[in-house]
Design brief:
Helices cover 12% and strands 58% of the residues. With 106 residues, it is mostly beta strands.
Length: 106
């Protein structure tokens, strides 16, 4: 299943098991529909309760296409959700556990 996200930020980091990683912080793109017809699409352009975190290897082969797509599409990236599994991890910045979408290719 594919889902569109507005990318807020991409940062590098270190994972105790997976080594160098990239954190992608993004908000889901919301659609206003009538039936099957999409009337409008929008996304919140700042951090909020809707913000989701994706963790992928810090590999240019994976990162560059995401960056290029977002730059070419007004900040929007289409994530293939089957490439990720949901996990809970500790967010050192905020000092709490959060749900993340972890790349299955680790």
């Amino acid at each position: 299943m594919q889902k569109d996200y507005f990318i807020l930020d991409i940062k590098g980091g270190e994972h105790n098991l997976h080594g160098e990683i990239a954190f992608i912080k993004a908000n889901p793109v919301m659609e206003t529909k009538i039936g099957d017809r999409v009337l409008s699409r929008s996304a919140i352009d700042h951090y909020c309760n809707e913000t989701e975190t994706f963790i992928i290897p810090a590999d240019p082969i994976l990162l560059n296409p995401i960056i290029f797509e977002a730059q070419s599409n007004n900040g929007v990236w289409t994530a293939e959700m089957s490439d990720f599994r949901d996990e809970t991890t500790f967010d050192e910045t905020n000092g709490k556990r959060i749900k993340v979408h972890m790349f299955k290719g680790f």
